[in-house]
Amino acid sequence: MSGLAVYESKYSMRFDELARQAAWQLLERFWIPRSDRTWYQAVREREHALRSFFMEKLGFRLIVHYEFVKLEKFLSVKPAPWMGITSFTERRDYVLFCLLMAFLEGKTLDEQFLLEEITDELKAMYPPTDGINWTNYEHRKSLVRVLQMAKEWHLLLQIDGDDQRFLATADAEVLYEVTPLARYFLRAYPRDLTQFSCIEELLEASEGEDKTLARRHRVYRQLLLTPGVREDELADGDWSYLRNQRNVIARDFDEALGLTLELYGKDAMLTHPGKSQVATLFPDARAVSDVILFFARTVHEAIEQQLLVPEKDGRIVLTEVDFASLVETCKQRYDYGWSKAWREMSVKQLARHLWEELVSWGMARQGELLNLIELLPRLGRIIGHYPRDFDRERKEGETAADESA
Predict the structure, then answer these.
(1) Per DSSP, what are the bridge partners of residue 14?
(2) What's the rounded Cα separation, in Å, for the pair 273 and 218?
């Protein structure tokens, strides 16, 4: 790979541009099948550097198989809503997916079977307290979502028929085949899952016995896989480790992934110097990102006007009424540049959607008292502006409209 800049740290991790891009592919994708020859081969060629970095720094195992490559990613922290599967909308979807995996476990490689066999087995295994009824449209819709996800993850091959027809009738005929990847979907745990009595035991077992190594892995994972971290969100001693090792951490993320560590006050986050076609970054191309940027601007303006006063640690504590008032101000001032759907939302609808998105990006959270919310310093790191030409055209249009009136 001549012509590529090569970096080498004292850990003997050699990362060139190909290794860095392959690392991002592993992070953003559940796995890379051999059919994706470009990135499958890239991971194979840079396997040593990738394996060393991910195992040493994050405790992630790189699996290199003849049929695929996979990075086992996980967070040993309390589960959060954003960790879910975006296409799943009901708890039922997750139950059916787990049962489907159990069903596939009993199939031999390349074995074929009908949708009818899946529905019979899943109905028999489904928890009797809830029950499943394939004459119910919503239940069939859940299974279609699960089957679609299984196909996207290359767990199933659809040989004949169309499972979308299952939405119309429970008698739809579809032929499937199990793939080799189905055996590697679930991550291996130190002991049988039935031996864990709660999620906390499972998370603790995932960290291993070396507490120093577990702390490093925990800090690196949270920085990489979450929008950011605050001191009060970390386990005891993790913030001190982050501050003391910030130079090493910053170098590691810069060399391997091209990310910059920002550490200020009681907050830390990784930022990307430019746009990326692979990484999940904020802001993204969705219209809600524009709304957040201008909400941040509204908050900045309120602080400048001393209408809002941040706490000593940078948080802004608001009542739900105050938050809705800020949203309304933002809408009145800046919605002329938003998409039609967001412009036409009521303040109540806008506040709800905006709140959910702010929480998912770690820019806001529920306060200690249920009627209070907290805007976090991370929100203060961004601001939105329209291009000058756009603002000028709007003002000229308003002037012309006033004159004609």
Answers:
(1) 8
(2) 24
Token pair, residue 322, equals 């105050």
Provide the pLDDT for residue 3.
37
Contacts of 154 (CB under 8 A, 6+ apart): 31, 33, 68, 179, 181
**Beta bridge mates, 8:** 14
Residue 241: the pLDDT is 94
* The pLDDT of residue 162 is above 50: yes
> Which tokens go with 33?
């099948």
| 383 vs 75 pLDDT, higher one | 383
Residues 315 and 309: their CA atoms lie apart, in Å, by 9
Looking at per-residue pLDDT, the higher value among 389 and 399 belongs to 389
Q: Quick one: tokens of 63?
A: 């699996």
DSSP result, 130-197: T---TTSHHHHHHHHHHHHHHHHTTSEEEEES-GGGGGT-TT---EEEE-GGGGGSSPP-SS-GGG--
CB 287 within 8 A of CB 342: yes
What pLDDT digit, counting tens, does each position of 214-243 carry? Answer: 899 999 999 998 888 889 888 889 999 999
d(CA 104, CA 303): 56
Those residues with Cβ within 8 angstroms of residue 234's Cβ, 6 or more apart along the chain or in another chain: 219, 222, 242
The DSSP result for 246-266, as a single string, is HHHHHHHHHHHH--EEEEETT
**In this structure, what are the phi and psi dihedrals at residue 156, rounded to the nearest 5 degrees?**
-130, 145
Name every residue whose Cβ is closer than 8 Å to that of residue 8 and which is 6 or more positions away in sequence.
Answer: 14
The encoded tokens of residue 326 equal 């800020």
List the one residue out of 258, 253, 213 whose CA is nearest residue 53.
253
**What CA–CA distance (Å, rounded) separates 362 from 34?**
35
Pairing of strands 267-271, 364-366: unpaired
Q: Return the percentage of the chain with pLDDT > 70, whole number.
A: 89
Judging by beta carbons within 10 Å of its beta carbon (0-12, 13-18, 19+), is residue 341 exposed, middle or buried?
exposed
Positive or negative CA dihedral for 18, 24, 28, 33?
positive
* Neighbouring C-beta atoms of residue 258, cutoff 10 Å: 18
